[in-house]
Design a protein that fits this description.
The complex is a heterotrimer of chains A (382), B (145) and C (661). Chain A is of the alpha/beta class. Chain A contains 17 helices and nine strands. The chains are: A alpha/beta (382), B alpha/beta (145), C alpha/beta (661). Chains in contact: A-C, B-C. At the B-C interface, helix 1, strand 2, helix 2 and helix 3 of B face helix 4, helix 16 and helix 17 of C. Strand 1 of chain A pairs parallel with strand 26 of chain C, so a sheet runs across the interface.
Chain lengths: 382, 145, 661
């Protein structure tokens, strides 16, 4: 074995790129033990942190791109090490220095976002097309903005979430606006994937559009948008209220602005998304909503709330290929089945996309339905 | 009537006697055939005590001390260990069967060890039957008194 | 065998008291039958059973019988003697009987509670009571003795442990002799730069205490002195102290320092870990207590070659006295506190670390002196060639946790290694590597200090250092060192290149600890440190009554633990000294001088050194102050001359007879 030589410069780069708490790690390995990857394959988070400390990190390794930023490790870390920041910083070093290759699928998504403002590379002018049939207000000054996220805006399998959301808001008589082609991807996953510059540019474009429209309150469908607007844009000077739909709708229901007319006779398991539950401690509101829909029986899976199991889609992983036997979403669907659920309810477009993909792997009959919480509300309203 | 052995136990004050007390406190049941005699240290056990017990009609003798290394008097139980080894050589010559004399370390929290030692020696001695001291006249001389 | 020693002449009248203990005993043992059985036995005048013998009514039954029936031996059949023996002893005492004329038969814990109800349980209770009755016949009165003790305390060693202990005692206005081998008190702590985890300057917190020692009217400070002999026993020690010739009259010297200034001869300074120089006449460091120099006769040219005397010429106080000789004085003390400290491990035998050959490899103590503002470099970190180091590696566990050297953990090195990281960063801003096996930071605010130092961008490499070699790569024009080890967290061999290495060396027992142990009759544990009486419940006392051990002579420890232990030892010593007298135990051995054959088997076996041989009468005798009553001697005495009070052979043999009737 050839002895390693330490490159302090590499460690310093990671530290400067946002991994300041790197040094505090005392190598207990709780991160590795808590990481969902180790339910499907080996991922030595602890070792990667130590390599980063000493500057002997292997920038060629695929490991650097695994982290889904699910925050399970950070939440438990006894030394307060911001492991996600370290992963992000390492990716940033690669992105900014060209030290090694960015995975192809990720690069494509990033290129698309840079060019078209969405990861799918769809034309920006079609971003508001999902709402055409609903005759929503575009571009007019509005206090409240509904920001759909790229996936519900373009992805055929998830469009229904945006449409259901808008319908509910209309039923409740909410005066709201959409920005359609003025919107860009929020950049949350872009940032986690290491492209800090692109994130900044996306954020600036969005902030400009929001301010032009005079937006004071943003409603979002994606926990990633929520996290980014609330915790990252705010540091760039944003001054607006951000609410995830589950928060906003739970309030509408409790204010009796929405009343249910129909029973939804289903057993529903609610999947806490990492970015709502662990990153932002939002797990009561979606359950309140489900509880208020007549007919729904809530069943709980084994990993819930701040112990939730990641769908595998965060940290830019939504755009990267994951081997068939290594998908957390498969494990999660099994948990829902074990809990006896007919429906796996979600409140995140990434989770929905991953679970829908996982269902393809099951035999021809659909063992379970994947529904956004807003879809279930719709069912109860109609 | 079935044979009920009579057994004398010598317990050191600090560990074994406390361990035997604990057996009672924890209501652990053991054979009622063993009568305890308290010594300050098992190292203070004179070999004559053991022989005297057999002479007076005991069918067995149990000696208990602290675990090795835990003696209240530093190393008294090591002396016990050596003396008991020598004594057993002698008692074998006197025709006292091996199982009739038992050495057992019992710490102050080792009630179970005491109970099982009591039960073991009672069963062993019961199986051997009464010790007939007329087989060998023990202690007729003054050597052991 | 049958020759039980004759019963005492008096008329034995035994009272037997059988306790029901509510249902505790009575539900298993037929207590009335036991009392009835006892009544029929020889010498038994009265036998009663009662609901609760330990209650005041129960106690009164005994009291009345003693008073009214003239009962002179008591057997209580009740719970374990470990619980109420003292209570019933008090009943006897209050009734005018010697408390040792009592025997307890344990029919609760060791009978009723561990057997089923039935005739066998009652039979066993009968046997236990018979045993107690037969035994108590042979009980006799035992008188405890008190002996006066010398009111002074000796503290050996003037490091922080000894200083603390001496001050605690002096603050109680009791006399302390503080004996220190070196010319000044202060010990290792005086050599340290800063102390973890608070980074207090060591001298700043130590010097006030040293001055307090100098000022205290209750402390008799003897520096440059050694204890050479200790005789006697607890309360009555006689200690011989050798006061080495200073060649400076302590009464005349005013501490002006002119002798030091004028002395033309220099040598390595022990205080500076040989990294700096001192004169042949010297004080180890500027804040020395007492501030009185010493002439080192091994280095003084007058002593070596017969001429110089520069010091004498310049000393206005005429304090220099080349004719001075060693003085031997005897001290009488009641208690002794041993605070002799530790030596640091010499890492030379670990040849792969190159200590001694590679000039930029230092020990932890050397590094302390390099950091210290009063040290040889005035606190500037310098390499052998005078450059300031830009990088440092601190190697943990050098000579510790290593079966080849010392198996134990030295406890302070993790923390002082972290401290060095901080100091190095502070002084140079350079790169620091910690090469450790485990980080052990157990102590108040220690883990927090570890985390703080981590946050100062120190590199932690987990692994035992394999080697230190000079950097041979051509590109290097300055001398550098390459450290090689496995980073066990990566599973890779790692090379670290640095300017300077500090070896965190083990704390060892003093090289003369064996000799000191002999003088004080102390035990040593396997690691060579002095042995405490009990590792958990009595870590301050020793097997030698009246002698206490504090600080690192008992085992490696940090300053807070040392100070705490020193205060504890002072409290123990004061507890004896303030009382002015002490009681002997009741259960002690005695030797029948008419039978003793002077074989000395007993004294060799006694763990407390309580048996001494009286040459004039040619018999062994027991010191009742020291004896703890284990009867190890009694069991071994080939002549049967030794008997332990309240556990005599006669008593035990009678009990055996009783339980087997």
């Amino acid at each position: 074995m050839v002895a390693l030589t330490l490159f302090k410069e590499a460690a310093d780069m990671i530290r400067e790129a946002g991994g300041e708490k790197l040094d505090n790690c005392y190598q207990c390995g709780l991160c590795t033990g808590s990481c969902p990857w180790n339910q499907v394959r080996s991922f030595m988070v602890r070792r990667l942190i130590h390599q980063a400390q000493l500057g002997v990190i292997d920038f060629e390794s695929d490991d650097l791109w695994l982290c889904t930023t699910c925050r399970n490790c950070v939440q438990r870390c006894p030394r307060g090490v911001e492991i996600i920041d370290i992963m992000r910083a390492a990716r940033r070093v690669i992105t900014e220095t060209g030290t090694s290759k960015i995975p192809d699928s990720l690069r494509l998504a990033i290129t698309n976002i840079a060019g078209a403002g969405n990861p799918l590379g769809q034309p920006p002018e079609e971003r508001g097309d999902w709402a055409t049939s609903l005759k929503l207000k575009h571009h007019v000054n509005s206090y409240t903005l509904y920001f759909s996220c790229c996936i519900p805006a373009y992805e055929p399998k998830v469009k229904r979430v945006a449409m259901a959301t808008a319908q509910i808001l209309k039923v409740a008589g909410v005066d709201f606006n959409i920005l359609a082609d003025k919107e860009n991807c929020c950049g949350e996953s872009v940032r986690k994937a290491g492209d800090e510059n692109l994130f900044r540019s996306l954020a600036n474009k969005n902030l400009e559009a929001f301010s032009e429209a005079g937006v004071k309150q943003i409603l979002v469908s994606s926990p990633h948008c929520y996290h980014s607007f609330k915790n990252e844009y705010s540091k760039l000077g944003a001054e607006f209220e951000v609410l995830h739909m589950v928060q906003y709708l739970a309030q509408l229901i409790s204010d009796e602005k929405l009343t249910f007319k129909k029973e939804v006779k289903k057993k529903v398991a609610y999947h806490d998304s990492c970015y709502l539950a662990r990153h932002n401690a939002i797990y009561d509101e979606p359950r309140q909503i489900l509880k208020s829909i007549p007919g729904i029986e809530i069943v709980e899976m084994s990993d819930i709330k701040d112990n939730t199991l990641c769908c595998g889609g965060g940290g830019g992983r939504i755009w990267m290929d994951t081997k068939k036997d290594e998908r957390f979403s498969d494990l999660r669907i099994q948990q829902a089945l074990d809990a006896g659920a007919d429906v796996l309810a979600v409140s995140c477009p990434y989770c929905m996309l991953n679970f829908e993909d996982s269902l393809l792997g099951f035999s021809d009959t659909k063992p379970i339905e994947i529904k956004d919480v807003v879809e279930l509300i719709c069912e109860g309203l109609s | 009537m079935s044979f009920e052995p009579k057994i004398v136990a010598f317990l050191c004050n600090w560990c074994s006697y406390a361990g035997a007390d604990l057996a009672g406190v924890s209501r652990a049941k053991c054979a009622p055939n063993v009568m305890s005699i308290r010594l300050m240290c098992s190292g203070g056990l004179e070999p004559a005590f053991v022989l005297k017990a057999f002479k007076e009609g005991a069918d067995g003798v149990l000696v208990c001390g602290c675990n090795l290394g835990d003696c209240h008097y530093i190393d008294g139980n090591y002396k016990t260990l050596m003396r008991m080894t020598l004594l057993k050589k002698l008692t074998r010559q006197l025709g006292i069967e091996e199982p009739r004399i038992r050495l057992q370390w019992v710490c102050a929290s080792c009630a179970e060890d005491f109970v099982s030692a009591v039960n073991k020696i009672t069963e062993d001695v019961r199986a051997l039957g009464p010790y007939r001291q007329n087989k060998v006249e023990v202690g007729s001389g003054s050597a052991i008194s | 065998m049958s020759s039980l020693k004759g019963k005492p002449d008096e008329d034995i009248k035994i009272g037997v008291y059988v306790c029901h203990c509510g249902h505790n005993i009575a539900s298993t043992v037929n207590v009335e039958e036991v009392a009835q059985h006892a009544k029929g036995l020889e010498n038994v005048s009265v036998a009663r059973d009662y609901l609760y013998m330990c209650s005041s009514k129960g106690q009164n039954l005994i009291r009345q019988d003693i008073m009214q029936l003239g009962i002179n031996r008591v057997v209580v059949a009740a719970c374990s003697p470990r619980l109420y023996e003292q209570t019933f002893q008090n009943v006897l005492r209050e009734s005018g009987l010697n408390p040792y004329l009592l025997q307890i038969a344990n029919i609760r814990e060791q009978c009723a509670w561990c057997h089923e109800h039935g005739p066998l349980a009652t039979e066993k209770a009968n046997r236990l009571v018979s045993g107690a009755i037969k035994r108590v016949i042979h009980h006799s009165s035992i008188e405890e003795q008190t002996v006066p003790i010398f009111p002074a305390t000796l503290v050996i060693g003037g490091g922080i442990a000894g200083i603390q202990a001496a001050l605690e005692i002096a603050n109680s206005q009791q006399i302390v002799y503080l004996v220190e081998r070196e010319p000044s008190i202060g010990g290792h702590m005086a050599q340290f730069d800063k102390t973890f985890p608070t980074l207090d300057c060591s001298a700043c917190i130590l010097t006030p205490k040293m001055n307090e020692v100098a000022r205290s009217p209750y402390i008799r400070l003897m520096t440059y002195s050694e204890v050479v002999d200790v005789s006697g026993y607890v309360g009555n020690f006689t200690v011989k102290v050798r006061r080495k010739a200073r060649y400076i009259d302590e009464d005349k010297c005013v501490g002006c320092g002119i002798c030091i200034e004028k002395c033309p001869w220099s040598t390595d300074s022990e205080f500076d870990a040989d990294l700096g120089l001192r004169k042949a006449v010297y004080t180890p460091f500027p804040q020395a207590i007492p501030n009185i120099p010493v002439i080192d006769r091994e280095r003084c040219v007058y002593f070596l070659k017969g001429k110089c005397k520069a010091c004498e010429k310049f000393c206005e106080a005429q304090a220099v006295n080349f004719q001075q000789e060693d003085l031997y004085i005897d001290l009488q003390v009641g208690a002794i506190i041993v605070a002799t400290g530790y030596d640091v491990f010499d890492p030379t035998p670990i040849s792969q670390y190159g200590y001694g050959n590679l000039p930029n490899v230092f020990t932890s103590l050397e590094f302390e002196r390099l950091c210290s503002p009063s040290g040889p470099t005035a606190g500037q970190l310098k390499l052998a060639d005078g450059r300031e180091p830009k990088s440092l590696a601190v190697v943990h566990c050098v000579g510790s946790r290593d079966q080849n050297f010392n198996a134990y953990c030295s406890r302070v090195c993790c923390m002082h290694s972290l401290k060095y990281s901080h100091l190095f960063k502070e002084k140079t801003g350079g790169e620091v590597y910690q090469i450790y096996i485990d980080m052990r930071c157990a102590g108040k605010a220690y883990e927090e200090f570890y985390e703080r130092v981590q946050g100062e961008h120190v590199n932690f490499i987990r692994g035992k250092l394999a080697s230190i070699t000079p950097d041979m790569s051509d590109s290097v024009d300055e001398e550098k060192l390459v450290l090689t080890c496995e980073d066990t967290l990566l599973g890779n061999i790692i090379n670290v290149t640095v300017d300077m290495v500090v070896l965190g060396v083990a704390l060892k027992p003093r090289s003369d600890s064996e000799k000191v142990a002999q003088i004080l009759r102390l035990g040593r544990s396997r690691d060579g440190f002095f042995m405490e009486r009990h590792p958990k419940l009595d870590p301050v006392a020793t097997m030698s009554e009246g002698i206490f051990i504090v600080g690192c002579c008992q085992g490696p420890k940090d300053i807070p633990d040392t100070v705490a232990q020193a205060s504890a030892a002072a409290a123990r010593a004061l507890a004896m000294v303030v009382r002015g007298k002490m009681d002997t135990g009741a259960i002690t051995a005695s030797i029948d001088e008419n039978i003793c054959s002077a074989c000395k088997v007993c004294s060799a076996l006694c763990p407390y050194g309580a048996i001494f041989f009286d040459e004039t009468s040619n018999v062994s005798r027991v010191n009742r102050i020291l004896c703890k009553g284990c009867n190890v001697c009694g069991a071994a005495c080939p002549s049967g001359a030794i008997s332990t009070r309240n556990f005599s052979e006669t008593q035990i043999l009678a009990e055996i007879e009783g339980v087997l009737v």
